[in-house]
């Protein structure tokens, strides 16, 4: 009876861990596995309570979750394999001298064969246990390969996330500054290349958030490297252009609509899983500053009426900025 319990417990742990590993690293539409998801959320909640909104700790929560996830996979695989080998007291034999194999020696053997080929001081019994040992080594190779590729993919996505923020904030810290730089005196066609790049980066970021939910927990202490802040600035620009320009012929509306659609998809993805819509709207773009630039804008009252249509959208953006532990971008 004890042997059956050990076999069942070991098999359950191994299958559960492998499922979570493959789910998290290979299933693009599946997000994180059940264990990985709980590790991430628990670590995030604990960090928020400890940090009391201090930005320093928020910077390490992403790497911390990644390390804890990898360690959890290792430990559960190791324990599961040890339990399975413990189902048969004679599954492993000592090659240096005769005697019973203790539990810690099984732990040693399964760990060695999981990560290396062993050193020969212990060996499996011929037949069934030789096959299981080969599978043990195969599981180790699977974990190392998928774990390494997962880490590389996540870090690459974090770099691209910050690159998006720098793309936007490099033009200005708020919508008025970006509009000033984009206005040629006659039109906004200087925005075209910028909008094409930004739309592509936002779409890619959205897909990466779906594939690697861990990406949401990587935060930057600097607002200019925060994708949430960068997208908020960009959307303010899009809102002014889409709802505030009196002469739509001064801008490429097709690119404006494409960029707005990319931001909307990003917000739908984030609010469905990670962020909550803010209770209040963020501040409106400063109409006085924009008017001083002599842009072809509608009157402020008309703009205020039009912007009510995107009230929910702007509250989602504010929710994303707050979730990233930053303030709404203002001059």
TrEMBL record:
It holds the Pfam family Ion_trans_2. Residues 74-155 form the Potassium channel domain. InterPro entries: K_chnl_dom. SUPFAM superfamilies: Voltage-gated potassium channels. Keywords: Membrane, Transmembrane, Transmembrane helix. It comes from the Bacteria. The chain crosses the membrane at residues 6-28, 57-81, 139-159. This is Ion channel. It comes from Alkalibacterium pelagium.
């Amino acid at each position: 009876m004890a042997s059956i319990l050990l076999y069942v417990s070991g098999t359950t742990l191994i299958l559960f861990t492998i499922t979570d590993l493959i789910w998290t690293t290979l299933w693009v539409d599946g997000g994180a596995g059940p264990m990985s998801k709980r590790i991430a959320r628990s670590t995030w909640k604990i960090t928020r309570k400890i940090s009391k909104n201090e930005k320093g700790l928020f910077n390490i929560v992403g790497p911390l979750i990644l390390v804890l996830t990898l360690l959890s996979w290792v430990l559960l695989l190791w324990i599961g394999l040890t339990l399975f080998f413990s189902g048969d007291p004679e599954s492993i034999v000592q090659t240096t001298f005769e005697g019973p194999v203790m539990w810690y020696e099984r732990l040693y053997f399964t760990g060695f064969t999981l990560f290396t080929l062993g050193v020969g001081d212990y060996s499996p019994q011929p037949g069934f246990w030789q096959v299981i040992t080969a599978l043990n080594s195969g599981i180790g190779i699977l974990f190392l390969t998928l774990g390494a590729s997962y880490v590389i993919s996540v870090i690459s996505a974090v770099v691209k996330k910050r690159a998006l923020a720098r793309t936007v904030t490099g033009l200005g810290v708020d919508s008025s500054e970006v509009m000033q730089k984009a206005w040629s005196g006659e039109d906004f066609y200087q925005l075209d290349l910028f909008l094409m790049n930004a739309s592509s980066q936002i779409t890619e970021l959205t897909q990466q958030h779906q594939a690697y939910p861990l990406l949401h927990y990587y935060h930057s202490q600097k607002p200019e490297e925060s994708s949430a802040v960068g997208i908020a600035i960009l959307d303010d620009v899009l809102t002014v252009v889409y709802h505030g320009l009196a002469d739509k012929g001064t801008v490429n509306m097709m690119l404006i609509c494409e960029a707005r659609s990319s931001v909307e998809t990003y917000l739908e993805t984030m609010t469905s899983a990670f962020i909550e819509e803010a209770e209040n709207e963020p501040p409106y773009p400063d109409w006085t500053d924009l008017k001083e630039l002599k842009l072809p804008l509608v009157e402020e009252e008309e703009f205020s009426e039009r912007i009510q249509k995107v009230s929910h959208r702007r509250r989602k953006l504010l929710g994303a900025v707050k979730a990233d532990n930053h303030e709404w971008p203002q001059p």
